[in-house]
Amino acid sequence: MAQLTFGNVQENVTTRDEFPLEKARQVLADETIAVIGYGVQGPGQALNLRDNGFNVIVGQRKPSESYQKALADGWEEGKNLFGIEEALERATIICYLLSDAGQIQLWETVKKHLTPGKALYFSHGFGITYREQTGIVPPAEVDVILVAPKGSGTSLRRLFVAGQGLNSSYAIHQDATGRAQERVLALGIGVGSGYLFETTFEKEVYSDLTGERGILMGALAGVMEAQYDLLRRKGHSPSEAFNETVEELTQSLIVLVAENGMDWMYANCSTTAQRGALDWRHKFRKATEPVFEALYESVASGKEAQVVIEANQHPDYRRRLEAELAEIQKSEMWQAGAQVRKLRPKQ
């Protein structure tokens, strides 16, 4: 295990060099890993584990679209694709990758199969951290562990296929067997992590919910909409407004940030852009700090969890969700985006 040092702060990280794939296979040689759920994270993690040589099976409700997707991905019924209860029975490690709402609904079924020595694996700290609201309290005789890839299951799979990796956090909530550490690291390497950094279930969900509602999705969408709408009100065309708001960011500048950092991106832009960005950066930071403070408090208090739980319990939640997503898709900005993407040069 290596350490990263940031001033007075030290972090434990594990790389593929320190915990190679062959070691991960040895650690999990006698395990049957059941991936329960084949929606967002399930396909990427299951396929990566399978391709890395682990004994992995998929448990999914039949009939369902996800079951058909699993068949299309090469899982074979009765061999490594089963109904949920049969997969739970066969498993020594249960990868609980249903949605947070789905985990609440299925918990009593899963709990029946958590016999001593098994491991319960999550990729999100929601169910355990907010256990008073979710009712998810595992028995004391099982390991409870977490590997949370820092991106979508689609990204995890794409990077794996490209021979790369997606960084993940890992945590141990309960070590009943004395093997939780090696199990979680082996699983982290097996699902295709670039490197693994240590956290807790609570910190994972607090940072994750803040990030999703903040800079990764909520803030990003909101700020883009505000700038696009401003440019359109000032007489700029949809193409110009979209390119200056979205296309240049996603196709050019964010790539430079990913390569070498924000300072390097600034250094590779015009002096006019540098000066203005350096000045206005502080204004945007000051304006948004209170919003992020309120957001984090809402997450830490459990308010955001309650909103999610209650929304998913509403009988027409799916219809409402689709209507909200359609509102984004049908907006002028993202209609402009659809046209702009068609004009990108073909590779």
How is this structure best summarized?
The protein is α/β, with parallel strands linked by helices and 347 residues long. Helix content is 57%, strand content 15%.
Shape label = globular
Q: SSE order, as H and E? A: EEHEHEHEHEHEHHEHEHEHHHHHHHH
Radius of gyration: 22 Å
> CATH topology of the largest domain, what is it called?
Rossmann fold
Return the CATH class of the largest domain. Alpha Beta
Mean of all residue-level pLDDT scores: 96
Give helix % range.
Answer: 55-70%
Unreliable residue stretches:
none
Structure, explained:
Helix 1 (21-27) packs across helix 9 (180-190), helix 10 crosses helix 14 and helix 11 runs antiparallel to helix 12 (238-260). This protein has helices spanning 21-27, 42-51, 65-72, 84-90, 100-112, 126-129, 131-134, 153-161, 180-190, 201-213, 218-233, 238-260, 262-267, 271-300, 303-313, 317-330, 332-342, and strands at residues 2-6, 9-15, 33-36, 56-59, 81-82, 93-96, 119-122, 143-149, 166-174, 193-198. The radius of gyration is 22 Å and the shape is globular. Strands 1-2-10-9-8-7-6-3-4-5 form a 10-stranded mixed beta sheet, with helices on both faces. By secondary structure, the chain is of the alpha/beta class. The protein has 2 domains: 2-199, Rossmann fold, CATH 3.40.50.720; 214-342, no CATH class. The longest helix has 30 residues, at 271-300.
